[in-house]
Amino acid sequence: MFDQSALPYLLQRNTIASLSGSGMHIGDRRYYPFEKQSVRCDSVEETAKAIRDMVTQGGGPLQVGMTAMRMLARQIAMGMQPCKYETFETSCTVLSQARPTNTTLSRTLLRFLSQLCSVYPNKVLDMNTIVEHTDCIIDEFERQFDQDYDAMSNYGSSLIQDGDRILTTCFAEHSFFLSLVKAKNAGKRIAVAVCETRPYLQGARLTAPSLVESGIGCELITDSACAHAMSVGKVNRYMTAADVVAMDGSLANKTGTLQNALCAKHYSCEYHAFAMSPDSSIPKAASIKNEYRDGKEICEVRGIPTTAANVKGWYPAFDIVPAELVCAIITPKGVLKPSDIARYYALHTDSPHQSGEKS
């Protein structure tokens, strides 16, 4: 099992979210790497707003949501919130609605509520034990996720070959970074091409600095240079996370992934995506709910306008990538072909948890 020190700063658990008295701090990725800031949240509503406002993204909301359950338990124990099951239930709904495409958070919170019902069969909570039981549930969730990150990165690192030049989109988080670190530690010579990832520049601001921190060679390229990089042999492999995977093997990931997957197919670059647990409630690509954000967000970079004030923007936050463009999906159960996803992740799966990667 890996330890947190194997991860770059942005992916360490306490950087993503940490308790502080009756509230919590969320690492503010909007300012990284120029500043290391956090946002203070004293309620679930403030936490959900921070998620919507992109204080954290990708897998960040999962850790934030779990930490929010710890915060809520402490507020109940302090008499700040009603000692009722409905307090957790309502809070889970509020958090789940913050980002609709990635179902990781919502599925994990549903599982938390189910575990809470097991501890308190009649849904009658005890303010004297709620912190202990909540922490116990979340501790086990975190242990399970760490086990899966470890397994997935073993699979990921085995796919990476000596001399590979890997393209990635956005900030692929735990399993991708651990795969690279393990490949590097095995003596494989690797390099990563990082596309900038507009409009928030997660590739430039999050991925590239984290790769440098981890001692992985990387170069930053523009989003529009990915096809050219493949055409001249600058990259030979494409790897990303997946915000969600449907049962037909299709997936959603940050806008820009679809065009890169198309180019990868054309130039015979294998495309692998990391997915903790495909969503068995989503049968096919058409069932994935895509998030459309305010078009104003693509008309500026870090608050600086990039066009005239009266120009309108259009911003689908994710691409839906059809299964035929994906070579395989790296899961805790192995490296699966898209056509095998439904067989391994059917409803009522025996998997210890049902949630997406990006965490």
Question: What can you see in these coordinates?
Answer:
The protein has 359 residues and is of the alpha/beta class. It has 2 domains: 4-147, Four Helix Bundle (Hemerythrin (Met), subunit A) (Up-down Bundle), CATH 1.20.120.420; 159-344, 3-Layer(aba) Sandwich (Rossmann fold). Helix content is 37%, strand content 18%. It has helices spanning 13-16, 44-52, 60-77, 85-96, 104-119, 130-159, 173-185, 202-213, 226-231, 257-266, 341-344; strands spanning 17-20, 23-28, 37-41, 165-168, 191-195, 217-221, 237-241, 244-245, 251-254, 270-274, 292-293, 300-301, 304-305, 315-316, 318-321, 328-331, 334-336. Strands 6-5-4-7-10-16-17 form a 7-stranded mixed beta sheet, with helices on both faces. It is globular, with a radius of gyration of 20 Å.
What kind of sheet is the major sheet?
7 strands, mixed
Show unreliable segments. 348-357
Strand order of the largest sheet: 6-5-4-7-10-16-17
CATH hierarchy class name of the largest domain = Alpha Beta
Global Rg: 20 Å
